[in-house]
Amino acid sequence: MDLARYESLRALVRENFSETTQQLVDQALDYAGERLAGLERYDGSPLLCHAAAVARIVIEEVGLGRNSTVATLLHDVVRLAHKELPAEEFLALMSDIRARFGDQVAGICMGMANISALKLKAAKEQADNFRDLIVSYAEDPRVILVKLADRLEVMRSLEMFPREKWRKKSWESMNLYAQIAHKLGLYEIKSELEDIALKYLEPKDYDHIVAKLEESAAERRAFIARFLVPVEERLRALGMKYHIKSRTKSVFSIWTKMRKQHVPFEGVYDIFALRIIIDCPREEEKRQCWTAYSVVTDFYTPNPKRMRDWVSIPKSNGYESLHTTVSAEGRWVEVQIRTERMDEVAERGIAAHWRYKGVNQGGRTSEMWLSRLRELMEDTTHSLAQRFDALPASGEIFVFTPNGDLRKLPEGATLLDFAFDIHTSLGATCAGGRVNGRPASIRDRLSNGDIVEIQTRKDQTPKADWLSAVVTSKARNKIKSYLREEQAKHTRMGREELERKLKNWKFAISIDEAVAYLAKHFKLRLGTEVYALLATQKLDFMTVKELLSRHLSGQAEEERRAAAAEAERQKIEQRAAKESRSGQDALVIDDDLSKIRYKLAKCCNPIRGDEVFGFVTINSGVTIHRTDCPNARRMRENYPYRVIEARWRQGAEGAFRVVLRVVAADTTGMANHITEVISRDLRLNIRSINFEAASGGCISGSVAVEVPGASAVDTLVHSLSRIKGVQRVYRIN
Predict the structure, then answer these.
(1) Which one is predicted more confidently, 357 or 546?
(2) In the chain, what are the domain boundaries?
(3) pLDDT digits (tens, 9 = 90+) for 178-219
(4) Considering the chain, what is the average pLDDT of its residues?
(5) Which terminus, N or C, of the chain has the lesser number of Cβ atoms within 10 Å?
(6) CATH top-level class for 396-471?
(7) Between 1.10.510.10, 3.40.50.300, 3.60.15.10, 3.30.70.260, what CATH number should domain 656-731 receive?
(8) In the prediction, which pLDDT does 336 show?
(9) DSSP per residue over 311-373, as a string?
(10) pTM for this one?
């Protein structure tokens, strides 16, 4: 066979591989040339020219090695044999290839043949099936990389194919192969496949965009030159080694934006991107990339929503780069900052990423990148028809510390999430902070590009309601851990103190019996809750001593028996009174409280319109409580015979005092706004007002107001909530 026809491929092999590999490639060319003799492509060239062109792509653009190159040269031999030969002859051929070129070469060839034999359905069903096809042939993922190179060569030569094949191959390239190339980090191959496919699928649109790009090329070059003058001067002054590429957005990307945003060519603002590529040692990469970023943003204003940091946290396919979009001369410019190594990975994808680390140093390293590639393919989403965006995964935001450090958080994260993300102790003592220089509370949500400063307080500790103020699992777990530790500490302290008191009082009762009695008395579910009440001084020991004394003396039992007798007597009286009321079975509360012996309870301060009930006291007549009074449940359960139904008289008038709690931003004139709404707008009398500074740049206080009834309270709360800066308003009494 005339090897001179394939001299360009052989020269490329000599540049990249050993002499042994060169000999193996020549053997593969001879072997394939002999078995494909007489077979031609649509333009009349030998069929082997296709395999040779694919092999060049495999070496130069994908970055694969010897076995992939040899398998590429043989793949048409195996494909045609698999399709035409009887089983015995095909198996004999594969044995021969395995003996001559090795198991890996035979395996890749077989995988390629299987893909070619698979009859995929047309249109959208094809896209959904493609993931299953990838995984099924992922035993050696190099099959997919060689297949991508094969498809790229076909698309570059599509003009020679019959016209009826153009549309099908273009659709497959755009919707299937380009997406796989993107997933594997082969961005150049992805863009070229999409552009060629668009040229055949939408030729008028394609030609229009190409013409527009040519028209604006001179103006773009002049703008880029002006843009780069100050940047390059500063980079040189800093002694950085670099070069700059200007990359025009692909025709397909421009076409997609025009369609998605319904704009003409002139409406697509980021037609091109500038790439600053730095030459530096591996250990200097991160620092020098951020230095270059700082230089660019010193001269041009960045758009924080378009900031992408894949240097601190690379993409899963190995892609590393800093992306920012800055404003210059009234237009947006995308700037990509990366190192030579990062650019190599960006150009060649995952294959280059691992090859750069030394695939040629041995089979183990090679196996590492093959394993990573297989992992990536299996992670591909089910619906490959859906686009893989080059932006970071949706649902993420980037937030800065005052020093400029970048933190990645989930969308919806709060200032408290940010504090815990920095450090646990910072989160545990967080009392608020500042976002972009403005005061903020721990519950304030953060946005992309925010600069966040945390303020702490020594006496601050996590609270149970903090769990509703965070979305990250790290913050939630740390808060829960602290609360568990506090509960354990309170249990230990409460138990130890109660043991000492029982010993001092010389009560003949075990601590477990005492705690069981107290839990039952206060209707608590667990004994640890009793210990917590004691440790936090919500239950004083004088009360405990009195309760336990009555329990031990039997006095509590006598009281219960007396109460039962009283209850029976009250029931008889109630039945008699009910029969004589002519159907009126509820106490009617008028506006004149002095005529009968009932009064409004101070614990819940009921007002006209609240749902209420009456409670018969021993010395004070009937006390009126709200049905949601903190003491309501205890009174109904312990003294049901004293509870009577009650309601307000229709049309009754009067003035009731209600107290509201208001939390608002600490801004000038906030108290005046609140008093104006109450006095001027709602014409209500203010009895007292008191505000004081709170955490997180807020003020908190109470306002006592005279209202005619409960409906006025609802109106009052709603009106105050609408004042700009007011965060919470609620009734406390």
Answers:
(1) 546
(2) 3-186, 210-348, 396-471, 481-553, 565-644, 656-731
(3) 887 887 777 888 999 999 999 998 899 999 999 998 888 888
(4) 80
(5) C
(6) alpha beta
(7) 3.30.70.260
(8) 94
(9) TTS--TT----EEEEEEETTEEEEEEEEEHHHHHHHHHTHHHHHHHTTGGG-HHHHHHHHHHH
(10) 0.49
